[in-house]
Amino acid sequence: MYNEPIFLQPEFKERIWGGTKLNEIFNYDIPSETTGECWGISGHANGANRIKNGPLQGKTLAEAWSHHRELFDNEEGEEFPLLVKILDSKKDLSVQVHPNDEYARDVEQQNYGKTECWYVIDCEEGAEIIFGHHAKSQEQLAAMVEQSQWNDLLHRIPVKPGDFYYVPSGTIHAIGEGIQILETQQSSDITYRVYDYDRTDKNGEKRELHLDRSLDVTNVPHVNPVLERTQWSEDGIDKEKLVEETYFTVHHWTLQDKSHRITSENYQLFSVLDGEGTLTTDKGIFSFVKGDHFIIPATVESYMLEGTASFITSVSNK
């Protein structure tokens, strides 16, 4: 039986809006000074992580999903369902929107649309996100986009560390400059750009917009999701449920000493936001540090955590 955590090698993505905070905060060996994304837990074809330890060392998470489904409680589906990223926005991201599953299958021939959620790790004072819009109808939305009425259309929200946002498919959104977030999402890389501030890439070209498809998939009117963040202590860990919805359940865990023995009915995804410690299974003791990403497979019957650390954890609900 596979009785140890699966540690994953991050994949990095250079972006026009990226910076160096992934190195400064998490000590990642980033490829450039415009590194925007760390794909920490991914089976996606555009950036599947390699496994760093154990019997499957050197294999990708996608290969593990395809050939060792018992590690994932024999969950159905052609692809690993979730993708966990850390983003560093030195500059504003484009204003964008993502399709739902049905649109992704029908139009993009992809298995998943993209519902996501954001945990704000850190940000500059005065940092903002764009979350939703003020149009009351599809006709008004199309007219405001065509007339570039961005200040009137887009809803801006100031953010601070520890904030959390649930971003269902169809939500117009953008991460503003000076923010680092952990994003838990469906395993999808479909993005429709609505507006990109008329900026150009290194070749002097404006990036492509996708206005027709953006208007197709945007929810009108925008409705802010209602979240009930609940906190409790369990197994020697302070826990907070951030969201529980169709595709995933996401928690924030704080470990301050030593947990009790923890059992789980499903595989769990972990990203270490801060601190360090050890994870113990019947197989042995495994160290983790800030910036690590790992999965506790369904074949691990129980485990213990020890140290001082905080995590974002998630499970698939599909």
TrEMBL record:
Pfam families the UniProt entry points to: MPI_cupin_dom, PMI_typeI_cat
Superkingdom per UniProt: Bacteria
Keyword Nucleus annotated: no
Keywords: Isomerase, Metal-binding, Zinc
The reaction(s) this protein catalyses: D-mannose 6-phosphate = D-fructose 6-phosphate
Domain Phosphomannose isomerase type I catalytic: 7-111
Domain Mannose-6-phosphate isomerase cupin span(s) in chain numbering: 239-314
UniProt KW NADP keyword: no
GO molecular function: mannose-6-phosphate isomerase activity
InterPro entries per UniProt: Carb_Metab_Reg_Kinase/Isom, Man6P_Isoase-1, Man6P_isomerase_Firm_short, MPI_cupin_dom, PMI_typeI_cat, RmlC-like_jellyroll, RmlC_Cupin_sf
Family, as annotated: Belongs to the mannose-6-phosphate isomerase type 1 family.
Name of the protein in its database record: Mannose-6-phosphate isomerase
Species of the source: Halobacillus naozhouensis
